[in-house]
Amino acid sequence: MDGLLTVSDDGLYCPAGDFHIDPHRPVERAIVTHAHGDHAARGSDHYLTSAEGEGVLRHRMLDGAAIQTVAYGETIDVGGVTVSLHPAGHIRGSAQVRLEHRGEVWVVTGDYKVAPDPTCTPFELVECDVFITECTFGLPIYRWPDPEEVFGKINRWWKKNREEGKTSVLFGYSLGKAQRLIAGVDASIGPIYCHGAVQKMNDVYRGDGVNLPPTTYVSDENAPEDWSEALVVAPSSAGGSRWIQRFDPVSTGFASGWMRIRGNKRRRSLDRGFVLSDHLDWPHLNDVIDGTGAQTVYVTHGNNDSFARWLQEEKGLDARELPLRSQYDD
Amino acid sequence: MQAFAELYRRLDRTTSRNAKIEAMADYFEQAAPADAAWAVYFLSGERPKRLLSSTDMRRWAAEMVGIPEWMLEESYTTVGDTAETITLLLPDEGGSAQKTLSYWVEERLLPLRNEDETVQREEVTSIWRELGRWERFVWNKLTTSGLRVGVSQGLTVRGLEAYSGIDRDVLTARMMGDWSPTAEFFQNLISEDTSDADRSRPYPFLLAHPIDNDVHPQEVVGDHDRFLAEWKWDGIRSQVIHREGEVFIWSRGEELITERYPEVASSAEALPHGVVLDGEILGWKDGKVLPFGMLQKRIGRKTLPSDLMEDVPISFMAFDLLEWNGDDIREWPLRARREKLESLFDAGRHGPSIRLTTPVQGDSWDALADTRADSREHKTEGLMLKRLDKAYAVGRPKGNWWKWKIEPYTLDGVLIYAQRGSGRRSTLHTDLSFALWDDDDELVIFAKAYSGLTDDQFQDLDNWVRRHTVERFGPVRSVEPEHVFEIAFEGVRRSNRHKCGVATRFPRIKRWRRDLAPKDADRLDDLKALLPALPDHVDADE
Q1: What does the pLDDT look like over A228-249, one tens digit per residue?
Q2: pLDDT-based confidence at B542, cuts 50/70/90?
Q3: What's the CATH architecture for B2-143?
Q4: Alpha helix positions (H), chain A
Q5: Residue of B12, B74, B423 with shortest CB distance to A303
Q6: A263 contacts B70? CB cut-off 8 A
Q7: Which residues of B touch A301 (CB under 8 A)?
Q8: Out of 3.30.1380.10, 3.30.70.100, 3.60.20.10, 3.30.470.30, which CATH number does the structure's domain B209-405 have?
């Protein structure tokens, strides 16, 4: 890849402005699209992120990290390159990075979604010449149901478990997905308890003024007589651990786009899979690419080769796989 | 169809046996016999074969939704199941046709057999439009891969038992062999009159439990003198039936295989009437058992050239007697059944190709263990231990029969290729190829294995594979030679179809040898050393 952005050993790099975007190793200047671990590496000298994302990023980075923020849409000059951040709708503070230099506009999406999410600013379409997009769910089998419908299912599952005397344990990423779940469920059904990793992020979200129903940290001191009324929100890594045994008998659910495929649910021995993603599904991914007007598209974080081929053959775009050295599958 | 699709959903949502039994009983309660018969058929794992091609169905779906075929195949690789791939691609909105399961199978699916592709395509796409989303998925399942919803024939029988109150042994017997899923079949299946036993029907096979090699048998099964010990023959478990002048040979897979082994069939005519033998079909020549690899040449062959019959003659090694004088004697203790079996042989009432197993003698577990150590020389897999005082029960009851197998062979191989699995492992790279070092210090594949790691280990390995892929050839990835695995297998034979010249039997992963580096892996010569010397009459190219 050659031009305004190139790929270095540390990740995406802008030679003109001498900064990286989402480097996976510490660098001098890093623009961070959002605070998930595969996008925000600790130890860089200087970070730039959205004003909305400061709280979560600060929580995830080392103490005293130098974090500069800009409001969505505000432009700043970084080494002669005009930089602005635009809402990506993925999690709190997530941003697309728009770069303008010598009349050319590039946009790096980071992770993004267009579905509604009350915990962050909604995605904004940005026109550009070169579009660097994630395609985590870049296959036509991925189509998301209406989130309202999914929350209806989660609520009914929680109520039914309550009637059957089972604790509802709902898995989702501790940053972003968990808060979206907590904000979306019907909190009148019962109390909501959270794993420590989730509870910490809830506090950060609340500190930002996000309206979440009350949640209690799961601990021996806070343990109720009977867990079966509760919805417990936890990262999926807590699944096979001892931590979960205290809730027996349980019904387990996982909220993720991967749950669209039955094998993913069965392999994890989950009772329920809820199709709720913080990424785009296939139709929206195609709509957004059409909407940007970009003629050159780099794709990453997915079935890159087939998605690039689709864009070339079906849309006539100059589409290629972003040759990042480190790839993450989710 | 709605009711059957709902049954599928209930079965799919639970891993509890009792919940599955209850769901099936509820279904049978409300189903018409014609639909219930098809439900039994599909739940037992059957499907109408060679009817529609999965590849064709995927292509029709791709055309219907307007995506190129390669994109559909890419989706299929991710999902791992034709029925689900098609369902995920088609628009979620569907029809709401209120028709029965037997209608969708008998009136719509079965007539498509032998139709040309245009007709099949038109009809199948029309069915997709008429069915709701979930019904469409279930219809696709039973058309392509079969239901595969964690219900075996045994569990189906439990569901029928819960619904009908008919004893599960009777139900199992009635479901053996060939039957057609008709209303009449279902009514007979749950009929309270149990004197209907079809004369061709075999008995359900009694299966053995393994004894773990890491523990002493005394601790697991108690004193040795309560058991009859026999070699564990490596052949095809079968029953030979002689009733009312007719002979039937059934394999454990409930296939009628009488015509494939004419030597045994004609010998069985010498048996008294009303006799059922349990035993093992073996390749047998010059008083010795032939390797399983030789027997394999006869498996699945319906036409038998005379040179093959000469190369691989078959014998039936009898080890149990289930019916005598037309009476079911399975309730007799083994001691009595064995006595009767021996009397039959003493009287010479068996043909030349039916043999009697000789019990293995040993006055202690240690003595038996010594004999067992010679299993490989006897071309057997170890010992069978059978309680002399127990009846011949149905299924795999704990304690009646034990298999005490010898340790498998093991070699340490290097992982060099990985491919995504199918079914529930379709998102993980679980089909793995392992290699050994040859004389030129190159790695040569010797075995492919799919099992032996925990789900977590497969998950770890999958992450590693994705990050250390060297090249991709379609679904196969070559990976950096870094990880060593101990591979267990049951036997070896020469093979020209395998690059290394040797085929292994039942290879599986025994453990992940994180303590070994690739250079520590075994050599191809170690594998070749396990081959028996080439007998004169065996062609190296089999």
Answers
A1: 999 999 998 887 778 888 998 9
A2: very low
A3: Orthogonal Bundle (1.10)
A4: 54-60, 147-163, 177-184, 196-207, 262-267, 282-292, 304-315
A5: B74
A6: no
A7: none
A8: 3.30.470.30
